[in-house]
């Protein structure tokens, strides 16, 4: 199919800049928020070392990759 030309020009006027995850200054808060969402049934703590590694990683897969890593970590983590 074809994309309607009038719709293209309507949407073309809206520009959203979404920085890649590696450039966001609020990564720590984002990680905590996503972790809370993934572990709504129980409280999960994250060590300083783990947080440092998460914050220093480049995240080429952006938010989807981070969410998958946190989901996996939440399933595999211990209660200690």
From TrEMBL:
InterPro entries in the cross-refs: AAA_lid_NorR, P-loop_NTPase, Sigma_54_int, Sigma_54_int_dom_CS
MF terms (GO), sorted A to Z: ATP binding
Domain Sigma-54 factor interaction: from-to ranges: 1-75
PROSITE patterns: SIGMA54_INTERACT_3, SIGMA54_INTERACT_4
Keyword Kinase attributed: no
Tree of life domain: Bacteria
Gene Ontology terms: biological process: regulation of DNA-templated transcription
Keywords: ATP-binding, Nucleotide-binding, Transcription, Transcription regulation
Name of the protein: Sigma-54-dependent Fis family transcriptional regulator
Species of the source: Xanthomonas perforans
Lineage: Bacteria, Pseudomonadati, Pseudomonadota, Gammaproteobacteria, Lysobacterales
């Amino acid at each position: 199919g074809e994309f309607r030309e009038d719709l293209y020009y309507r949407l073309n006027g809206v520009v959203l800049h979404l920085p890649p995850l590696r450039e966001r200054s609020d990564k720590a808060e984002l990680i905590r928020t996503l972790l809370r969402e993934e572990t709504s049934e129980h409280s999960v703590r994250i060590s300083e070392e783990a947080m440092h590694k998460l914050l220093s990683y480049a995240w080429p897969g952006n938010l989807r990759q981070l969410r998958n890593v946190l989901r996996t970590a939440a399933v595999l983590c211990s209660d200690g």
